[in-house]
Amino acid sequence: MALKLVHRFPQLGQFGIQRIPVGPTRLLSTSSQSLCVACLRTSAGQCIRRQGCLRLQSSCGIRSLTTTIVREPSFVASSSVGLHRDSVPRFQLTLLHRPTAAEEQGFQQRLGICSTSRQVFKLLHSVEIMSDTMAAAALHRVAELEQEDNALRDPTVLEEDTIRALCFQLEQYSARLTDGGLVSALLACTRLYLDPWSTLMVRLVSESQMRLDRGQMSVDELCTLGQAMLAIEGPGSVMLEQVMEDIQRQKPAQWSRAELVAVYKLLQGIVGEDGKYRDLLNAMHAHAMTVTSRMDPAAVSGLLSALVTLNQTQAMPLVINLCKQAVRHVPHFTDEELTDVLGALMHFGHSDHYFVKAMEKYVPTMAFTSHPETVSKVMQFFGRRNILSPAVFDAVAESFVYRADDYSSSQVARQIVAFGKLGYLPPNAGQVFGKVETILRTRFSHFQPRTLLNLLHACILVQRFPVNFVSKVFSSYFLQQLQEEDTIIERAVLAQLTQLYITVKLECPSYEGPRLLPKYRVKSFLTSGRSLETPVDPHLYNSVKNGLEDLLGDRQYFGSKVLTPYCYTLDVEIKLDEEGCVLPASHVDEVYKRIALCIDGQKRFTTNKRQLLGKEAIKQRHLRLLGYEVVQIPYYEFEKLQNKSSVVDYLHQKLFPHTYRLSW
Q1: Tell me, what's the pLDDT at 52?
Q2: How would residue 86 be classed by pLDDT, with cut points 50, 70 and 90?
Q3: Lowest mean pLDDT: which of 12-26, 81-95, 253-267, 544-558?
Q4: CA 352 to chain centre
Q5: Is the pLDDT of residue 121 over 60?
Q6: Is 373 exposed, middle or buried (0-12, 13-18, 19+ CB in 10 A)?
Q7: Which end of the chain is more exposed for a tag (fewer CB within 10 A), N or C?
Q8: Distances (CA, A) of 408 to 38, 50, 446, 470, 507
Q9: Nearest residue to 614 via CA among 421, 463, 380, 383
């Protein structure tokens, strides 16, 4: 049997199992008595059938596969792989003694806690009865434990006698497998990267095609088969197309939650032509809306991930429902599931107050133990949604000091970028940025140019100046690397370089390194898309403008949206002479003082606190260094004003707090 296995598995040759000619071999006991095909016992002795053994007959119906394990001696030629007593389990098809539901559930639980393939093999040695679904589950578990970067971490695991014995049985009795066991075994084989043209794979695919043609597979089985064919042949698979046709004939409203999630995941892998499955997806969305309240963490995460891949922007009501359900599961998500949930919420631009509260409670408990990618995604989420949570940021900052050495360059950058974007310094800021400097010094070459620029730019937003590394960024070599990433350097990247250069000039007078060449500088930070300035809120601006006209007496006494020589755009500029009198905006001589009025709408603050975003804070800081008197008009103060008179009084107090106001 072992010899046949080696000859029938050409794909095992790549893992070191060679075909060696051998003489006749004897399988099982030395007794001359005939063997029962059903139970691997001699019919004269220990056969499990009282009236003699029955040979298994091929049947067009669906049969149950139960593998009875018998530890018998196996004598083979010395040049072949021997299966010796108690070394590996021996599997054989029988129609009797199928494990009970409780036994299968217990096996699955024990399988789930196996942390190595060796433990899986040990578990298989310990069981006496195994169904085809249990055998497939064991292969899946081995795949989960051995997969790494689209390959097996240790390909020699396929040389294990236990794996080979399992595969031999699946090949030998493929026609007798249940539909569920058949497609699950096929999918497990794809996850173990077995050769699609091996005898085992060809038989499983052929048998699956026959079952598919009968049209009796459940939705869950169709999805499993679809995933397997997707792995074998890709989205263009003819068999996969037949699977989708069968699924489309079903009624999503009658599917279970597990079936619904399975179809979403299959569609996620296909990502077909736009609109190809629109009707199916719309029906699925409608059904999902009714069952989200009963979904477990894996289902919520899987569904959100699928909606992102399928770009179902029209399904926002479903996204909102899933987010509400996610609130309950925040402490129970695995790292991978939470990463997918946060990624989906960022993709759809949605955040829920209760979800944020749940994260604020959970993050301090996981910052030191969760996967670095999950922690980075947490910071990315809060940064992208402009949500400032000291509880989250302080916990991550504390863990950063101890864990950053194990973070990738991207993970380091994404965590620090969140601090910079929201303009927040944690209590241990000195330790955090000391760690950042150490990482930059020891791993500078590991950072991609864009990633490095994002990191350094985030530092200056919170007044942490990476002077030791600016000279490298302004070097022709680094700028050339930036240009290699894009044929033309994006305007947003040039704006970051320009602001870094201005920061060095204004705030680091001791810097004597290379300067940024003029051709890499922008003239304005206010651009469409990724801008280093937030455009003024039109409604708030008009209200302030009307108040200024009443206060100053004429529109000519202030300028609007004035571009300064240092790239910043002023919402309103007011010029004063030496005596404090207001000059016309067009006046260029004898200007003694300039007032920069910052009309700060909601978008210039974090969403949950009255704190300026990092890019607005650095703008006002630089304007002060350039000699402007910065006067801030925050929305939350202006909104309290009830009438024109109160507006004028407010503006006068802001602009001229020490002078008496005249009435025009």
Answers
A1: 36
A2: very low
A3: 12-26
A4: 19
A5: yes
A6: middle
A7: C
A8: 55, 65, 9, 21, 30
A9: 421
At 32-72, the pLDDT tens digits run 333 333 333 323 333 333 333 333 333 333 333 444 333 33
pLDDT confidence of residue 651: 94
Any idea which residue has 């990624």 for tokens?
Answer: 343
CB neighbour burial string for 523-558, b if at least 16 within 10 angstroms, e if fewer: ebbbeeeebbbbbbbeebbebbeebbeebbeeeebb
Query: If residue 598 lies in a helix (H) or strand (E), which one and from where to where?
Result: strand 593-600
How many other CB atoms are there within 10 angstroms of residue 642's CB atom?
7
**Res 67: pLDDT:** 40
Cα distance between residue 571 and residue 539, in whole Å:
13
For residue 607, the SS3 value is: coil
Residue 564 makes CB contacts below 8 A (sequence gap 6+) with: 570, 623, 626
- CA-to-CA separations, 494 to 69, 503, 518, 614, 637, in angstroms, rounded: 68, 14, 11, 18, 35
**Collapsed DSSP state (helix, strand, coil) of residue 131:** strand
Give dist(CA 597, CA 654) in Å, integer.
10
Q: Which residue has the tokens 């004897």?
A: 26
Instruction: Render pLDDT for 127-146 as a digit per residue (tens, 0 to 9).
Output: 877 888 888 999 999 999 99
| Average pLDDT of span 388-415 | 96
Task: Answer whether 403's CB lies under 8 Å from 431's CB.
Answer: no
- The two most distant CA atoms of the chain are separated, in Å, by 121
> Is the pLDDT reported for residue 658 higher than 80?
no
First to last CA, the chain: 106
Local confidence band at 510 (pLDDT 50, 70, 90 cut-offs): confident
- For residue range 231-253, list pLDDT tens digits in order: 999 988 999 999 999 999 999 99
Instruction: Specify which residues 106 forms β-bridges with.
Output: none
- CA dist., res. 292 & res. 299, Å (int): 9
Query: Distance between CA atoms of 431 and 664, rounded to whole angstroms?
Result: 57
| Domains by residue range for the chain, with CATH | 1-216 (no CATH), 538-655 (3.40.960)
pLDDT category of residue 125 using cuts at 50, 70 and 90: confident
DSSP, residue by residue, 51-93: T--------SS----EEE------B--TTS----TTTS----E
Q: How far apart are CA 191 and CA 228, in angstroms?
A: 9
pLDDT in tens, 628-644: 999 999 999 999 998 99
Q: Name the residue with tokens 């705030």.
A: 507
Nearest partner of 597 among 648, 558, 642, judged by Cα: 558
pTM score: 0.81
3-state secondary structure of 594: strand
Q: Which of 255, 258, 200 is nearest to 228 (CA)?
A: 200
Q: For residue 3, give the amino acid letter.
A: L
Helix (H, G, I), strand (E, B) or coil at 657: coil
Burial readout 561-594 (b: 16 or more C-beta within 10 A, e: otherwise): eeebebbbbbbbbbbbeeeeebbebeeeeeeeeb
Q: What are phi and psi of 559, to 5 degrees?
A: -105, 150
**Quick check: helix, strand or coil at residue 151?**
coil
In the numeric block, which tokens belong to residue 143? 């795949």
Query: How far is the C-alpha of 279 from the C-alpha of 309, rounded, in Å?
Result: 17
Query: Dihedral (C-alpha) 535, 537, 542, 545: value to the nearest 10 degrees?
Result: -60
What values do phi and psi take at 641, rounded to 5? Answer: -75, 130
